[in-house]
Design brief:
Layout (H helix, E strand, L loop, with lengths): L16 E3 L11 E4 L2 E4 L2 H16 L3 E5 L31 E4 L10 E4 L3 E6 L6 E6 L5 E5 L3 E4 L6 E6 L4 E8 L2 E9 L16 E4 L2 E9 L6 E12 L2 E4 L3 E2 L22 E2 L2 H10 L6 E5 L1
Parallel strand pairs: 1-13, 11-20, 17-19
Antiparallel strand pairs: 2-3, 4-7, 4-10, 5-6, 7-8, 8-9, 11-12, 12-13, 14-20, 15-16, 16-17, 16-18
């Protein structure tokens, strides 16, 4: 008789969700009206990711983040079968601020790009030529990546996270406590609009909180002029932050809420929240420890 696995893989139907809100302002119901339609929190889809996180937590491994904000580690080489004159790989991931991912049988050309901030499992390396083996949680597969694009992290389990839903324009935060995922907030949010060259949609995937700023100052499109700030900003990918309502100069006073929250995408990749909810997340989600999961 075969021995039972010590850590049997959790399935989505095994995930236990329980509402224990710690933030109760602007709270949405599980399903709610929007214009002539209905929107929802996609709990069944969210459970797929939560099961994966539980399985990650149950299996000892080394973890890291792939990073290239502002091409700080170098603009990656042209990927295999790149489209749009080399601006994107064949999966639609932008070369700018991307991370080159190679297969073991071809180190001459990246097979695709990773996205800044994505969570990766560290499989091997770095080797003699400075390549590290990784698995990318967001889309799977084993890849080789130059070591300079990888930031190892010390956390071994992920017990706090937020899930952003681009389709329904909402956000929920959860804690893993005693075998259950406790729902801490359920709020409207506004994600990024794909409108080149300055606006980008919020990327899909599993990301880490990489940086936090009490005030994230932003520029007028195409200039070096600071025109305002977004309060309580938690960065998870490239220039993408979860933050409060933007404050445009000459105004300096914090704004709590906007009627555009939870409607249609309109930001520059970021995820806008009510400012008090952004602060709630800012205080609870930790750099290099907490996950941001973006779903469709």
């Amino acid at each position: 008789m075969e021995e039972q696995a010590e850590n049997p893989q959790k399935k989505p139907e095994d995930v236990v969700l329980e509402k224990q809100l710690l933030y109760d302002q602007h709270t949405l119901a599980d399903t709610y009206p929007y214009k002539d339609t209905t929107r929802e929190f996609q709990w069944e889809k969210i459970k797929v990711y939560l099961a994966e996180v539980e399985n990650i937590n149950a299996t000892p491994a080394a973890w890291g983040i792939i990073e290239n904000k502002g091409n700080e580690h170098g603009r990656p080489p042209l990927a295999e079968d790149a489209t749009d004159q080399g601006k994107e790989d064949k999966y639609g991931v932008d070369r700018n601020q991307g991370i080159p991912l190679y297969t073991a049988d071809d180190l001459s050309v990246p097979a695709r790009y990773g996205i800044d901030g994505m969570l990766v499992k560290l499989v091997s390396g770095p080797d003699s030529v400075g390549m590290r083996g990784i698995e990318v949680v967001s889309f799977g597969g084993q890849w080789l990546v130059p070591e300079k694009y990888v930031d190892p992290i010390s956390v071994k389990a992920f017990n706090k996270l937020a899930v952003v839903d681009r389709k329904n324009q909402n956000i929920t935060s959860l804690d893993y406590v005693d075998g259950k995922w406790l729902i801490r907030s359920m709020n409207p949010a506004t994600t990024g609009l794909e409108n080149p060259p300055y606006q980008k949609e919020t990327p899909l995937g599993v990301f880490m909180v990489q940086e936090k700023k009490e005030k994230m100052y932003y520029l007028k499109d195409g200039t070096d002029e600071i025109t305002g700030f977004a309060p309580y900003a938690s960065r998870f990918s490239n220039g993408g932050y979860i933050h409060g309502i933007p404050v445009n100069y000459p105004r300096t006073q914090i704004i709590e809420y906007s009627n555009t929250l939870g409607t249609t995408p309109r930001s520059h990749m970021c995820v806008r929240n009510a400012t008090s909810h952004a602060k709630f997340l800012y205080d609870r989600l930790f750099v290099n420890e907490s996950l941001i999961i973006v779903i469709e």
